[in-house]
Amino acid sequence: MSRDINNKFWNEELETLPREELEKRQLEDLKEIVKFAYDNAPYYKRSFDEAGVKPEDIKTLKDIEKFPFINKKTQRDTQGVGSFLGELAAVPEEDVVFISTSSGSTGVPTMSPFTKKDFDEFQDTESRWFWQIGMRPNDRYVHALNFSLYVGGPDVIGAQNLGALCIWGGTLPSERLLFILKTYQPTVIWTSPSYAWQLGEKALKAGYDPKKDFNIKKIIVAGELGGSIDATRKAIEEIWGAEVFDFYGLSDIFGACAAQCEYHDGLHIAENHILVETVDIHTGEVLEPGQTGELVFTTLRKHARPLIRFKTGDIGRIDTTKCRCGRTHGRISILGRKDDMFIVSAVNVFPSDIEAVIREQSDLTGEYLIRIFEKDFTSKYAVEVEKATGVAKDDETVAAEVSAALKARIGVKPARVVVHPDGGLNTRSEHKSRRVIDERNIDYNI
Description:
Blueprint: H1 12-15, H2 19-40, H3 42-51, H4 72-78, E1 96-101, E2 111-115, H5 116-132, E3 140-143, H6 156-162, E4 165-167, H7 174-184, E5 188-191, H8 193-205, H9 210-213, E6 218-221, H10 230-240, E7 243-248, E8 258-259, E9 267-269, E10 274-279, E11 293-299, E12 310-319, E13 331-337, E14 342-344, E15 347-349, H11 351-360, E16 364-375, E17 378-387, H12 395-410, E18 416-421, E19 436-438
Parallel strand pairs: 3-4, 3-5, 5-6, 6-7, 16-19, 17-18
Antiparallel strand pairs: 1-2, 7-8, 8-9, 9-13, 10-11, 11-12, 12-13, 14-15, 16-17
Helix pairs in contact: 2-3, 5-6, 8-10, 10-11, 11-12
């Protein structure tokens, strides 16, 4: 199928559906997938029966609220039970052509199976996101993501299906990746926000000028929140002279489920594949679009392992109004992980709030580490930063300025700010960076 490279849409009819028509299609798919899950996945049969609900109860999209939630614990508890794929799977193993696994950073790694149809639709969605950011067949693309069981690895196929020349970079050492950028002159790269920034720093220290020696025009970032933090995005763009686009994915569903457009006003989510709810993090009460809470996803077309009301653990909101780009699928904004949020003096604090402040300080390198600890039976936080080389201010002055900036933005200042020299923090990573250390011994249920 030939495409008009000047058309901004991969699938214009789908991406610009009137809201009423989009929700009509969602309802049709929701009815089918809930019945399919009930008829074929042992867990859903048992869970729905215990909750006193049945597939026929779905008459409107709002009726999904009658059904029970699932979460990561549900996945772990059912994985391998009764079969290799477990009780959430709704197809036999012979129908599965691919599995990915989660990182296991918050528990036992969980697998995500795909039928061939699931996988093909997954890759068509990736092509849609690549096209949305402006990738075209004449682009050269470096996929600098982990291929080892990571659901984002196969996303490169979406770029190939679009027609781009693809370089399967994977987790190459920085020196090798810089060689590829210099030698092959790719125009698009995908990696994590922290690594995009660090790779730019390493390029500068190696004597390259990323704006002149390389040909990167667009940088896709995912896996961390930085791509949606204006200060972080601008810091990366300043080094590379390229436009940064944030993508969002879940190993539980597929690679990139949502992506920014040229307006960078939230991330368009594939609502033809995912029904989005936002619920109160304490009560589970469903909130109106635009309100902030935990995002809950129901997969509408994934048959290998349907997810019905999956609590993602991500705190955010959805805007269902039409975007300036013309797309009608809702835009999600992610504030942070429920697991990462902490409360200080009755204020909800997300690491992303702190990152935004740190990246705006011209006296700092932008690297940081957050320590959360308990003192006098309450949570406190400390921030460690790096002072940029050549800054004449003493450490005490820099610490005081950072503390004041955090107090102004977040509403509560850190217990202390520790200033290190450039390179003094061990937070730089080839991929995701660990920036939060929770030293508390008590469990805060949020």
